[in-house]
Amino acid sequence: MDKLTYLSNADSGYIDSLYQAYKEDPNSVDASWQKFFEGFDFGQAYGGETIAEQTPEHTIKEIKVLNMIHGYRDRGHLFTETNPVRERRKYFPGKELETFGLSEADMETVFNAGVEIGLGPAKLKDIRQFIEDTYCRSIGAEFRYIRHPEKIKFLQDRMEADRNTPNFPIESKKRILKKLNEAVIFESFLGTKFLGQKRFSLEGGESLIPALDSVIQKGSSLGIEEFVIGMAHRGRLNVLSNIMGKPYKTIFSEFEGKMYEADPETQFGGDVKYHLGFSSDITSQEGKNIHLSLAPNPSHLETVDGVAEGMVRSKIDMKYGGDSSKIAPILIHGDAAVAAQGIVYETIQMSKLDGYKTGGTIHIVINNQVGFTTNYKDGRSSTYCTDIAKVTLSPVFHVNGDDVEALVYAINLAVEYRQKYKTDVFIDLLGYRRFGHNEADEPKFTQPSLYKLIEKHPNTLAIYVDKLIKQGSVNAEYAKTLEKDFRAILQDRLDAAKAVEEISDERPMFAGAWKGLRPARQSDIDKPVITKVTETLFLELAKEMNTLPKDKKFFRKITKVYEDRLKMIETDKYDWAMGELMAYATLLNEDYRVRISGQDVQRGTFSHRHAVVTLEDSDETYTPLSKLKGGDKFCIYNSLLSEYAVLAFEYGYASVNPNALTIWEAQFGDFANGAQIVFDQYISSGETKWKRSNGLVMLLPHGMEGQGPEHSSCRIERYLELSANDNIIVANCTTPANYFHLLRRQLHRDFRKPLVVATPKSLLRHPKAVSSLTDFTQKAFQEIIDDENVAAKSVKRVVLCSGKIYYDLLEKQDADKRKDVAVVRIEQLFPIAYDQLEALRKKYAKAEFVWVQEENENMGAWPFYCRKLSGSSLNLRVIARPESGSPATGYMKRHLAQQTEIINNAFLL
């Protein structure tokens, strides 16, 4: 039973034993009991008498007062004044004196329990006032569930020393006022000048701006040199202008409908202004340089969480030598989204994992108490929208958004906590949404009572100005001048924006880590890239990588895997795993970073990779690639069982470091379904929307092998559906060497494109899916591989195929000795190698062309190729499984019958 339970029961035996221990050695009991026993002379216990039995009723009440103090620390947040526009829900038991066994008659009594909160002996009314001020005013703190006494003590001591009541100097108050003035007037200005246009106003939560300004200033003083911010659309324009420093003129030009200058060949399509990202350099009040990045984000709310975390981790690895104290992520959530979106949970669960930790995230929830039109009571089951924080034992500060100084105090404490303990911390900024979800929406349709209160409620700036005037910190004229001058600045920038015909993007994409790279041109796509390596280097790395140390004991099966790989050097037959690992080894040798993550990637879902091996009689691991030249830049992490957040993280990682081969592997290809938002909103469209290139590689195991509807298809059709204007690369390779060159090509071009690879399962060990040394050292990536087994003049049919089915077709071709059917492999499904296809058409001039795939006719590459090659000289028809709503049959017999029919029909002239 814990101490608080004993306290509430006033267990005399327990108290007696504690007191005996205290008398023998005061340090043998914790600090709170030391304080309690100081100054009391209970005397010795004789003849079975206990301390409690010797002492008057007052002593029992001392314990009850201590219990009250602990009660406020535990549950005080339930009784705060944190809601600016309506009454809080009632919680029972409450904080009445009777709850703790006390009464009004005790208020003038002096209790030594005041020592516990630093008051010394004090009247109950003063003790109660102290803890009321600390835990039940504008800040409600949840932290007692943290299973770390030092962290609890740090927060408890800080809050009780200050009573959670900030005492800022006059210059700090003026800075808070300035930032709040900018936030409020900016929204008001937009609302009057661009009536009815969507801006997703921050009104009701404007104190976010002075809070962000303060966390950046405070963080800088604590050693943070860079912040990466992820947020959805509400308040984004305000953050862009008043925190990031995006020119008001540019924002007004976007409202005016002015377009960015764009090179038509890059296919830049743009995005709405409240989705855009930005980066800037600012100077702190102490004269320190701070870099700020705001990640672009679609309307899919919390998707940016993983992206921002990945950006931070990439910079920790690449720029800060692993020191997370130099950079911090800030995630800004909505109350409805943080409670309901699953990616929030996934991202939070990543926060302490070796492959994904970023040194702690500062979470700020703009709590409007409504989600679109849904009341908060219908938006979650938890007490607070921030209850997800308890998963990682992160402290939460619930703050009244109308008390801007309390918010600044809380967020300063939050950044201190983050820097000290390297864990997440949450700020729940309770405010309201003055208008509807957007400026054309009528909130009274669904929230009439709430919006009657909001209509009458003064804005945060008016409240703060009134407070400062009453304090004598500023006078009314000062506040009016501040507002007038800022409005004049905004009007001047608006006038300038109206005079501009076309705006230019002030943010150079290809700077910093991206320096030396450029946007891709259409003419670049088919250009060959030199990816071969010398025989000497290849053989040296192959031998070194596959020679396990003699002084370590490995499982016999692992030893055999590596022995078999060494034999591949002798037989000149390299399998898929060797082709893949050699791509990594050669890139590391060239000083590139290689990062791989996903479920079970160290071993590989199909036990093919074994990039990390475990010793037989311990948990010690050994990573052969890390022992090579450049091996310190090789990182491979088994991820948590998440696709959405992990893929978003790796996208963010790749966006920051283009000189890293960043790979996410799905356990099975269809697992990527769970991350479809990242594919749709970032991977396929990020360059078109935001001019942001990315070279992320996604490995999606694919192949119809009779294993049932799930884990057969990676849904190639989905990625091809997303393909346009050379935005991504979709490949389905059939040889280890071609895969080797494909991976190396990612970093050997001077531009970056996302790469989706349908990777094999059964082909990992197929005896014919091998490559020779010359394939690695004398060739390059082949978008299309022609049939070398036939003579063009004898060919009556050309079978175009992609992936695993090639080997089934090859087996039939060999068995039947068919020289009249050519089997041609399309290794790169997109971008389509039109010139090479046209050359095939000319080469096999008298032959018919057919498309053969093992996927259903309504799936796989056929729907895309049917559309793209419609009307071409190829005049394609398809041989495939029948259309289906399911990717594959669940019956092996039917699968084999279907596969046999496809293969037979491919050769049936």
TrEMBL record:
The keyword Heme appears for this protein: no
InterPro entries recorded: 2-oxogl_dehyd_N, 2oxoglutarate_DH_E1, DH_E1, KGD_C_sf, ODO-1/KGD_C, THDP-binding, Transketolase-like_Pyr-bd
Cofactors (names): thiamine diphosphate
Molecular function per GO: oxoglutarate dehydrogenase (succinyl-transferring) activity; thiamine pyrophosphate binding
GO biological process: tricarboxylic acid cycle
SUPFAM superfamilies: Thiamin diphosphate-binding fold (THDP-binding) (SSF52518)
EC code: 1.2.4.2
GO CC annotation: cytosol; oxoglutarate dehydrogenase complex
Gene3D superfamilies documented for this protein: 3.40.50.12470, 3.40.50.970, Multifunctional 2-oxoglutarate metabolism enzyme, C-terminal domain, TPP helical domain
Keywords: Oxidoreductase, Thiamine pyrophosphate
Signal peptide: none
The Transketolase-like pyrimidine-binding domain, residue ranges: 574-766
Keyword Oxidoreductase: yes
Family: Belongs to the alpha-ketoglutarate dehydrogenase family.
Function per UniProt: E1 component of the 2-oxoglutarate dehydrogenase (OGDH) complex which catalyzes the decarboxylation of 2-oxoglutarate, the first step in the conversion of 2-oxoglutarate to succinyl-CoA and CO(2).
Protein name: oxoglutarate dehydrogenase (succinyl-transferring)
